[in-house]
Structures are given as C-alpha cells and as structure tokens.
Design a protein that fits this description.
By secondary structure, the chain is mainly alpha-helical. It has one domain (about 1-420). About 80% of the residues lie in helices and about 0% in strands. The protein contains 16 helices and no strands. Helix 2 (about 10-40) runs parallel beside helix 6 (about 145-170), helix 5 (about 125-145) packs parallel to helix 7 and helix 10 packs antiparallel against helix 11. The chain is globular and about 55 Å long.
Length: about 425
C-alpha cells in the first residue's frame, strides 16, 4: 500500500517521465549488446571502456561540478548566470586539457600504461566538453521541470550510439571501433537538448552579467573546490578496476569486468538516474522551504529499496545465463556480476540521496572518507594481483570495501538529514 501511495505523487510522475526515456534508451542498449559482443572482440571493448572511464573520471575536474549549482538559487536569473559560467569554465578547462595532451601525450600513455588509447587520446577533451554541456542543460531542464526534454535527449543518444556502433561493426570501418559512434551519440544528445532548451534559455539571457557570474561563483565556491574533488575521488574509486585491470591483467580482461558492471548498472539505471535528478530537485526545494528533509530521505530509501529488490533479483538470476546471451568469449562475466551485485545494489540505494551532500554543504566532511576508500580499494586490487594473481579476488576485495563504505554512507545521510530537520 505504501508503494502504491508513493506512485501516485508528483515526485514519481516526474521520475516516470525521466524513467520512460531512460528505459527506452537503456533498453535499446540491452537489446543491441548481444550483437555488439559478437561483432567486436574483447580488446575493442576494453579500449572503449578505458576511453569512457577516462571521460567519467576526468569530468569533475573539467566542469568543477558547477552544473550542480544550477538547481540551488531561488531566482532563475541567477541560475542562467550559473549556466553560462559552467559552460565557459568547461570550455576553458577542456581547451587547457587539449594543450596538456598535445605536449605530454607520450608521457601520459607510458606512465599510465594507456598505449591502447594512443589513437583516441585527442578525442578525450571533445568527449568531456560534450558530457559537461549535456549535464549543464540537463540540470537547467530539471530546474524548469522540463523532464521530457531530458528523456528525449537520452533516447536520441542511445539510438545514435547503438545504431552507429552496429553499422561500424558490419562495415569495412570496423577497425575504428566503438568510440566514434559513442561521440556522435553524445553530439546528437547535445544538439537535441540545445534545441529543446533554446527558448527557456533565451528568455533569461538578458540577465546574464559577468559581474553577477563572478559573484555567484564566489558565493558557491564550495562546490567547485570540494564537490569537484569529492566527485573526482569517488569516480576514480569506482573506475579504479578498469585502470588497474588494464595494467595488471590486460585490456581483454577489462572488457569482462566492464561488461559485468554495465550489465549490473543498466537495468537499475532505468529508474536510478531519473530518481537522482528528481530527488535533487525535491530535496533542494524542501531545504529552501525548511520542510522535513529527513522524512523525504527515509521515504525515498524505502521505495528505492523495494524497487531495487525486484530489479537486482532478476539480474542475479540472469547472471547464470550470460554466456548464452553474450557469447562464449564472455564466460567469466556472470561470476563478476554476482561478486559486484551487493555493492551495486547499495550504491543504487545511496546514489539519489547523495545530492544532500551538496544541498547541506557537507562536502568537506565526506572528502577525507572518500579518499580513504580510494586508497583501500587500490590496496584491495593490488593484493589480489600481487599475492594471489587473481582478478576474481581483486574484484572481491574491491567490492567488500565498497559495501562497507556504502553502509556507512547510508547511516550518514540519515543522520545529517535528521539533524537539519530538528
């Protein structure tokens, strides 16, 4: 009954709009995945996963996480200034990254053992700029409650990426791999969001002012200073296996692990990403209006748990049939899925709620803990390699450390939301 009552509320209507787009976009990926695993070998997937992981890790440093601030101001004329501040800073930082890559390419590829990315390293700043701008436009549409725009952007991206990757695999251009299709998909999503958001942005453009942009940047300085570091540390921690597996066990093993993570995260992503976007909006409003934030957090946790229990139970059963789904070359993927499942389940529960760190400005408190988690995860993977020479043990230790961290986060989120409500 509680779940039925929850589903009738505006909160879930907004989530449902986003989830529809997410369901379609990620559903397309799920249907196409067995085709891609038969068209491309593990090395090609490994290179693509290293490239996409590089984007995921570096994005907070080239955006300074400024898109998060767009939801916070009461006035739209402040939000529009923050939107253009975010785009401008993202452009400058990605241009700087391109210069760094130009002069230090050989050192970067050699030091981090990323020689497989030699032909695509110059595309990293482009991918980062597209991802940054897409997130900025997503947060603007979230603020304006234009959730349909976000959904349409996700669908456009998925259709373009998957259709182009399949076409590449069937054509004489197969050797270029999966990266070009991915970047063109991001480009399609960016253009879709730009067209859909154009009127609402132009409406407030007259309020854009350089002095106001500087004032707001100074006012919200904790986010570029602490959120970007926190997000970078968290993403590096999450993607650490991709980098270390490539170094210790080889690029083809990266594909096995990466596909296991993708298989685990895609189905809950149908609802997880929309929940995160809508919860941030809801929690920001609750904080501004001094409403009961703790009650919102508890209710969200309860309902995410019920939804997650269904989704992850299905994933667990399917993990025993992954060889049939993906092909003979992907035998160990199901084992990695079962090892990582408890970690991804707990991460799924915490992901939407984590936005209260930004809302309540608790970035300083969590940063040191996040760095400790990063160091422990590195040690776990290194022990699995050095003492056991086993990728399975390395991933198991990585997962156990993540489980302990996520249980603490759950306690911490409940604690700070309760304290602010009292």
């Amino acid at each position: 009954m509680q779940l039925i009552s929850f589903l009738k509320k505006d909160f879930v209507k907004n989530v449902s709009t986003l989830a529809t787009g997410s369901f379609i976009s990620q559903g397309i990926f799920f249907l196409i995945l067995p085709v891609l695993t038969r068209l491309f070998d593990k090395d090609t997937f490994g290179v693509f996963l290293l490239f996409s992981s590089s984007l995921y890790i570096l994005r907070p440093l080239t955006s300074l996480s400024l898109e998060l601030v767009i939801l916070i101001p009461k006035r739209n004329k402040d939000a529009i200034n923050l939107l253009f501040t975010s785009i401008f800073i993202g452009f400058i930082l990605n241009s700087l990254l391109l210069v760094i890559i130009y002069f230090l390419k050989d050192f970067i590829l050699s030091y981090f053992n990323l020689k497989t990315l030699a032909s695509s390293i110059y595309l990293i700043p482009l991918g980062l700029f597209l991802l940054n701008t897409i997130e900025i436009l997503n947060y603007w549409n979230n603020r304006k409650h234009f959730f349909k725009n976000i959904a349409l952007g996700n669908i456009e991206k998925s259709v373009v990426i998957n259709s182009l990757q399949v076409y590449t695999g069937l054509s004489s251009f197969k050797s270029i791999g999966l990266i070009p299709g991915y970047l063109l998909g991001l480009g399609a999503q960016f253009l879709t969001l730009l067209m859909l958001s154009f009127k609402s942005v132009v409406k407030y453009f007259k309020h854009v002012n350089c002095l106001r942009m500087l004032y707001l940047l100074k006012k919200h300085k904790d986010i570029p200073i602490f959120n970007s570091l926190l997000s970078f540390s968290d993403r590096l921690s999450a993607e650490l296996p991709i980098i270390l597996i490539a170094i210790y066990f080889g690029v083809d093993e990266v594909a096995l692990y990466g596909l296991a993570v993708k298989f685990l995260k895609t189905p809950p992503g149908f609802i997880g990403e929309p929940l995160s976007q809508v919860f941030f909006n809801k929690a920001s409003n609750a904080f501004i209006k001094k409403e009961n934030l703790f009650k919102l957090v508890v209710k969200t946790y309860k309902n995410i748990f019920m939804l997650g229990l269904i989704i992850f139970s299905i994933i667990f059963v399917l993990s025993f049939f992954l060889t049939d789904i993906l092909g003979e070359n992907w035998k160990n993927t199901g084992v990695f899925v079962r090892i990582l499942l408890p970690l991804i389940f707990l991460s799924f529960l915490n992901a939407p709620i984590s936005s209260i760190i930004t809302i309540l400005k608790k970035q300083k408190n969590i940063l040191s803990l996040d760095i400790l988690k990063l160091l422990l995860r590195f040690c776990g993977i290194y022990i699995g390699y050095k003492f056991y020479n086993s990728m399975t043990i390395a991933i198991l230790l990585f997962s156990l450390i993540g489980i302990a961290y996520n249980l603490f986060l759950m306690y911490y989120f409940l604690s700070i939301s309760k304290k602010i409500t009292q």
